[in-house]
Amino acid sequence: MTDPQVSSRLPRRVDWDGAELRLALPVRGEVEVWLDGTYYARLRADDAGDARLALPVLPNGQARVNLQLRVARECSATVTLQRGRAGLARAAALLPPQPLCEQDYVDVAVAAESLRREIAIVVPVYNAPEAVAVCLDSVLAQTRGAARLIVIDDASPDPAIAPLLARYRDCRGVTILGNEHNLGFTATANRGIEVAGRADVVLLNADTEVAAHWLAGLRRAAWAAAETASATAVSDNAGAFSVPELEQENPFPHGWTFAQAALAVRQQAGSAYPRLPTGNGFCLYLKRAALDAVGVLDAQAFAQGYGEENDWCQRAEAAGWRHVIAGDVLVRHARSQSFGEARRRTLGEAGMAVLRERWPNYENDVGASLFSPRRRVLDWRVRRAYAGAPPLPRQLCWEDAAADTEAAPVYRCRRGRDGLWLQSPDGAAALYEHLADASVAAGCSAAGWSASFARLLQCHAIDRIVGALPSEFARVAAALAIDTTTAPAPRPFGTVA
User: What is the value of pTM for the model shown?
Assistant: First the structure.
């Protein structure tokens, strides 16, 4: 791709080997990579003028994607990259994004017990009653499955906190506690972890708001791999966990609600969970086994927070655990409601000083992982989703079950001879996943069918299932906290006892 009429700031040469893009740029030059008309990455040349971008999978989930390079207002010609095929092809019509080929799925059979266990949601509270009310109301409204909510007031001086929390004392599954004296965020979080007993824990800031499927999504991310210690949601405003733009406050598309943005992320971001050497305590899922192995948060070094979760994650990494971003779980974050921006900045600087002393490679390790291929794909898919229309929940109709096609896009599924057949809302039908094991395909074993059905539900972010499922499939839906029409809906979390 070379055009002598185009500014010399654009690449002099572009090569594609089927998995990596290689550019020849002016020395120390920069260029933006746009895929299918959506910004993907900014590349900077090395001292030799070379820049490379790994694309092990195409972010649109298709076999090809259109490429354009931009510097300021100048653009290169558009060409097509084809997965696994070297060379540049003539630009082709855009293909709609599809589920990613390489995703992480929770194995429902292997993790069955863990998916059934109760999760403790720990919310430390200090002042900011309006934000606290939004947070707690959203948790009560949007949480399904086995869970309990532990709210701990850290001796808030704001007189509005006590009567606010009193409103929730009689709610089923809710425990309201109070510290006699101000202990600080970290000690309060540790108290919640202790009260949680043997449950996995989600640390949730009191200035957040959650949406449908948030807890099930976090749990899937945490249990997709045995060695995962923690899973952190993404947010509109959570530093390195902000999407689609890092370290920025990201407004939702004009006219969209938070619920619509969260649904778009759930449907489009995919579950190729990026790995980071850290998590973020604004919405952090912690496995009990990892807490047993590593211990609780360091309340002495990080009394008021801002660094305690990073330190814990580094300790876990040193012990062989890992941490992931639950890229399909969007949590709204108001940030700095308890302490204010100035104090938050001061506490953050103090916490970073401790982290640098304890973990000298921490910042370099985080920086190296922020722009991994999986993280770039996540951000690209959120940008792409936000550029479209507000989404509707997805329903899966089993066999010939009737559905309200105006209320939500309808996927249809049936069991065929060789595997599950899936018909998408546009009417296209195809074998979702071939079951190569003849004994499984013949019905001698339910394990392969259940695993395939579980992957289908996760891959396509199904919200609700209509129709009479086979019993083994109904168990899969229950494990993934997906509502069905043949099983009683879970009792609303937080209903008055």
Answer: 0.93
